[in-house]
Design goal:
The chain is mostly helical and 88 residues long. It is globular. The chain has one domain: Helix Hairpins (Orthogonal Bundle), CATH 1.10.287. The chain has 4 helices and no strands. Helix 1 packs across helix 2 and helix 2 runs antiparallel to helix 3.
């Protein structure tokens, strides 16, 4: 799972201002980290369907946040997707 140090590092990297923990960029980055972790877990445990369902829920959440960000500010969206190396 995500450790406290990893979470703080991700927040520091993607925050927009001091004390920012809830901007779409931070939320998407944290979800992306969890998605990568669960994807690696499922490569080893192919029959873990409960985790697979949770992964799909996280992907849906991230997709919604990405859609929101693209509607609000397309430049922030493009910068974030290139930084995270995800398709938009």
């Amino acid at each position: 799972m995500i450790t406290k140090e990893d979470k703080l590092r991700i927040i520091d990297e993607f925050k927009r201002s001091e004390g920012d923990t809830g901007s779409p960029e931070v939320q998407i980055a944290l979800l992306s980290f969890r998605i990568k972790y669960l994807t690696e877990h499922l490569k080893e445990h192919k029959k873990d369907h409960a985790t697979r369902r949770g992964l799909f829920k996280l992907i849906g959440q991230r997709k919604g946040l990405l859609k929101y960000l693209s509607n609000v500010d397309i430049e922030r969206y493009r910068e974030l997707t290139s930084k995270l190396q995800i398709r938009g």
